Amino acid sequence: MGSQRPAILVDFDETAAEQNVAELLLTAFCHADWRSLRDAFRTGRITLRDYQERAFAGVSASPECMARYVQEHASLRPGFVDLAHFCRAQGVPLAIVTNGLEFYVHALLERYGLLPLVEVYGVQARFTPYGPVYTYPWATPYCWEWGNCKCRVLDHFRGRGYHIIYVGDSQNSDLCPASRSDLLFAHRSLLDYCRKAGIPAHPLGDFTDVLKVLTAQEAPRA
After folding, report:
1. CATH class of 6-18+75-218
2. DSSP state of 189
3. Which of 13, 32, 106, 210 could form an S-S bond across to 20 if both were Cys, CB 3.0 to 4.6 Å?
4. CA distance 97 to 20
């Protein structure tokens, strides 16, 4: 990694957050059969973008109501708060990179007082009386189906001279940035895939694992 400074990019649902926050909200507020849409996505019949748009179209709750629900029922993985404060003190960029909706990421970060400390790169949703209106600022033509190109975010930071530490959980949505990162922390299906494919990855228990590596790098050398 040389003398380059790190930037840490973290998946959100079931990585930075302990829960799948999107599914938490859909379970509580969606009046449509969103699980059938999820099954269609998992079996390749529809894209993630299509699943997410159609599922949240069945939600009638206000964004304020959903944000409160997130703050009452979701939690950040242990060590993430300490990591965020360490990164701020050391000038290390820490960003959430998600295919999910930014508003619920912001809600959970706000609960922990981290909203000013952590950048968020995701799908923007504006809720109107006629349904959600989506904006995809980080989509690309070759990554359209995911709604958000995580590798485009990775290239954004690498182009600014950072080496990339990536943290993720999904063999599908996280594999591209994971395979292009300089240092990888993985769990769940992504870790299983990396072990089978021979891709170097640190197992992620919680974010103290990431913090230990960073503090070791920042320690003064004799």
Report:
1. alpha beta
2. H
3. 13
4. 14
